From TrEMBL:
InterPro entries: Helicase_C-like, P-loop_NTPase, RIG-I-like_C, RLR_C_sf, RLR_CTR, RLR_Helicase. The gene is IFIH1. PANTHER family: HELICASE WITH DEATH DOMAIN-RELATED (PTHR14074), INTERFERON-INDUCED HELICASE C DOMAIN-CONTAINING PROTEIN 1 (PTHR14074:SF14). This is RNA helicase. SUPFAM superfamilies: P-loop containing nucleoside triphosphate hydrolases.
Length: 463
């Protein structure tokens, strides 16, 4: 795996630069968790070198996982895109603002630049294709060659891998020879870097699958439950294993009498081991069901009543704890926010107001002096009362802070808490990924007050 070896060489050079010593395998989920923890700890300690190195290591680890799952060229595209974004962060919009580039960032940029040509060379050589992809190709060709009316689903872990696997199948002439007509179906939630699918887009793909225009779906776990997918005669789980329930649901998609269920392992995924555990759990589940069937109706109903009462009491206790936590909400004045990358103080909780119980905006005029604004077409989102169409970033270091929100005709910087280190009464918190993680009640946004101020300012300018 020379392509993967180059990525590992880059990662080890970063380990030396940041004096880091991971104890888990590169290209594994455990390594990703380690890198995330290092980034959070470094952000809290204001260690810029380790923080930025940990972020790059997490991305290289993802590239390594991708190269073990999909094409090397797809993994390289992912890394290219990440580096282009990082370089863009350090480029001012108008050329006038000097954005700080640290020696560590220069080292990281040069490291990728020096190795890029080598990665490109290996990615173009088909003999270095990963074994898992070869096994998947063989299994797909076997299914479509041995069945008159083959129709199947490939389950994969991420949206990115679902899209790129579908593209790989479309671009490979061997699949066209056996009349494979692929498409992908992914989730609709907006929780990853990959653009989600709308309900209408999902419906359109499934309609084509029913009609036979598509005979192979590449899907994330959204297709295991919650989507009405027609019967198919083979299911492949590619580098994906969750629990025994998901395994049974995936098998259930193959409803034909001669349907098959195949698991293709991916390097460092642990899929084969988990699938063995799931099969054992499925067997135990069957025994438990048979035992329940042997109970009398009275004994069964009594036991069910006990379980239901226990569940009700546990939920009541959780509600009490949630109320107690709400009572302990800190005052906004006790909260400070600093840039996650350069640790520059940004604002206080008193400067933040909340729109529609969801969007946290900074309404102060002094805050506008701290950030630069960039257009971002991929971010564009339009709803009834608001839209977002630009990114705001730290004027000093280029770290993204959030987006520009146009709410009923007025522009406001909308903050994303994951981009900051939060300080509550002197205690630093660096693992907040969403605003609900913070026990803070921000002031509600007053539209009339701000609209009046804006109108007054416009009148004065015209006068």
């Amino acid at each position: 795996d020379p392509f993967g070896d180059v990525i590992k060489t880059i990662m080890n050079a970063i380990h030396n630069e940041a004096k880091l010593s991971p104890i888990c395998d590169l290209g594994s989920q455990n390594y990703e968790q380690w890198a995330v923890q290092k980034e959070r700890q470094a952000a809290k300690e204001e260690d810029k070198t380790v923080r930025v190195c940990a972020e790059f290591l997490r991305r290289y680890n993802e590239g390594l996982i991708l190269s073990n799952t999909i094409r090397m060229s797809d993994a390289l595209s992912y890394l290219n895109k990440f580096h282009e974004e990082q370089v863009k962060k350090k480029t001012s919009v108008d050329g006038e603002q000097n954005i700080q580039i640290t020696d560590t960032e220069r080292f990281l940029f040069k490291l990728f630049k020096d190795k890029k040509e080598e990665l490109e060379t290996f990615s173009k050589n088909p003999k270095y294709e990963n074994d898992s992809l070869s096994k998947l190709r063989e299994q797909i060709l076997r299914e479509f060659s041995s069945r008159g009316q083959a129709r199947g689903i490939i389950f994969t872990k991420t949206r990115h891998s679902a899209i790129t696997l579908s593209q790989w199948i479309q671009e490979n002439p061997k699949f066209a020879d056996v009349e494979v007509k692929p498409s992908h179906v992914i989730g609709g939630g907006d929780q990853s870097d990959t653009k989600p699918m709308t309900a209408a887009e999902q419906k359109d793909v499934l309609k084509k699958f029913r009609a036979g225009e598509v005979n192979l779906l590449v899907a994330t776990t959204v297709a295991e439950e919650g989507l009405d997918i027609p019967a198919c005669n083979f299911v492949i789980r590619y580098g994906l294993s969750t629990n025994e329930i998901a395994m049974i649901q995936a098998k259930g998609r193959g409803r034909a009498d001669d349907s098959s269920y195949t698991v293709v392992d991916v390097k460092n995924s642990g899929v084969a081991e988990r699938e063995c555990v799931n099969e054992y759990r499925e067997e135990m589940m069957g025994k438990a069901i048979n035992k329940i069937k042997g109970q009398s109706r009275e004994a069964y109903q009594k036991q069910m009543m006990e379980f239901q009462l226990q569940a009700i009491m546990e939920e009541r206790m959780r509600q009490v704890k949630r109320k107690q936590k709400a009572i302990k909400d800190e005052k906004p004045s006790h909260v400070k926010f600093s840039c996650r990358n350069c640790a520059k103080p940004v604002c206080s909780g008193e400067d933040i107001q909340i729109i529609e119980n969801m969007h946290r905006v900074n309404v102060t005029t002094q805050f506008k002096e701290l950030f630069i604004q960039r257009e971002n077409a991929t971010l564009q989102e339009r709803l009834l009362d608001y839209e977002t169409n630009a990114v705001i970033a730290c004027k000093d270091c280029g770290q993204p802070w959030g987006s520009v929100m146009v709410y009923r005709g007025m522009d406001f910087p909308c903050l994303h808490v994951k981009n900051f280190v939060v300080n509550i009464n002197g205690k630093k918190i660096s693992n907040c990924t969403k605003w609900s993680d913070l026990p803070i009640r921000f002031t509600a946004f007053d539209y009339i007050e701000h609209a009046s101020m804006m109108a007054q300012g416009s009148d004065e300018e015209m006068g």
